[in-house]
Amino acid sequence: MRTDSAPPTLPAREHLPAGDAGTPVLDVVIPVYNEEKDLQPCVRRLHEHLSRTFPYAFRITVADNASTDTTPLVAARLEAEIPEVSNFRLEQKGRGRALRTVWSASEAPILAYMDVDLSTDLNALLPLVAPLISGHSDLAIGSRLARSSRVVRGPKREFISRAYNLILRGSLQARFSDAQCGFKAIRRDVAQALLPLVEDTGWFFDTEMLVLAERAGLRIHEVPVDWVDDPDSTVHIVKTATDDLKGVWRVGKALATGSLPLDRLARPFGDDPRDRDIQDVPKGLARQLVGFCVIGGLSTLFYLLLYSGFRTFSGAQVANALALLVSAVANTAANRRLTFGVRGRGGAVRHQAQGLVVFGIGLVLTSGSLAALNAATGNPAHSTELAVLIAANLAATVLRFLLFRAWVFSDDGDEGERRPSTVVAGHQPGAPAARSYDTDQVRAGAAADGTWRDATMHLQPVRPHDTDPRDTR
């Protein structure tokens, strides 16, 4: 997992301002490998569509990743004939590598890509990028699995696509509906921070980018698309599926160990009045209460199951102590990560030690309740013991939340990585990026000169004939 370069933090999303008509607002990348037949009709059709419907300046970039046929010649001819088309070549294969290289060096504030077969209806392109231009969303994806999508493809690929997305939901808790559709867009400032964390250079690049973005709390906009399968697709399904499953395992392991600095991708709230500070109300209290209650309910069920198991071979006090100890360790770990948002291994031992102190208080409450019950009835029924323990655990749960919030996971002295509630980012405008690229110099997440440039561009609605007098449209 890429963690060698420190990604910048993200400012609040803003609508891209109007102004300079000469800067491309949108850079649509078409990654290709041996596409000499389809490249020219694809680029010309896309250029005609953007010229007719897109109200801002745009660029189409052909990213040739190590083609061995005449694809480079076709791309060079298109670049010479169409002013809005650029072309570069990588000497290594990999769709993810091509996208990372072009997106890292592009100066356009909105970056997109689509497959060369144009399986997706181009009428979805403006709805795809509009939420990014407006500042509403960070990434946007086309979805073939939305209710209103219209898709034509064979049962084999339909099954593979839906099975893959079910795997993502079950293993990585992904909530986006379609990871593999070759129709996506991202804001440049988000790409600057996100791409250094994405390791894959092939077909899993999309999935890894989306999973990390979603886990970081970035907003992903989904657009229902009309999509027709390309029967001549050169994708090797078995190899791609194997590589994807390896990627799922690698990303899942990284997320489970907390080795990714996803807190650096957190967005501060926008200018919604509901997001403004309210005096004397602790931040995040409502969300923490919900998370704590859910975890507490599951922990109580886990505790009761353990108690019933231990009770078969030990006394009530021993069974209660063992069950409470095991469930307390699991409860502290779950609340640390999910309720209070503490990531990484820093402070984990201290948090568990403090959690054991809280466990001791809960043990006193529950053990005292059992002792009082035995003193009152002599030989109580098992159901009565469980009812008393539930009541005692409710009291212990309230006290546990207060101690967790005020002591164990308080903001002061926390050694773990906590997601910040506000983020401030530097703002350094720079010169436009070069049109030629050296893949040895362009690293993942960096421009050709080794620096990141400001993603806010001055925009103005334009038509091609406003800037090119030779255009007769």
From TrEMBL:
It is a single-pass membrane protein; Multi-pass membrane protein. Keywords: Endoplasmic reticulum, Glycosyltransferase, Membrane, Signal-anchor, Transferase, Transmembrane, Transmembrane helix. The chain crosses the membrane at residues 289-310, 316-334, 355-374, 386-409. GO terms for cellular component: membrane. Residues 292-409 form the GtrA/DPMS transmembrane domain. InterPro entries: DPG_synthase (IPR035518), Glyco_trans_2-like (IPR001173), GtrA_DPMS_TM (IPR007267), Nucleotide-diphossugar_trans (IPR029044). Pathway: Protein modification; protein glycosylation. Residues 28-194 form the Glycosyltransferase 2-like domain. GO terms for molecular function: dolichyl-phosphate beta-glucosyltransferase activity. Its EC number is 2.4.1.117. Belongs to the glycosyltransferase 2 family. SUPFAM superfamilies: Nucleotide-diphospho-sugar transferases. Residues 413-473 are annotated as: Disordered. This is dolichyl-phosphate beta-glucosyltransferase. It comes from the Bacteria. CDD domains: DPG_synthase. It catalyses: a di-trans,poly-cis-dolichyl phosphate + UDP-alpha-D-glucose = a di-trans,poly-cis-dolichyl beta-D-glucosyl phosphate + UDP.
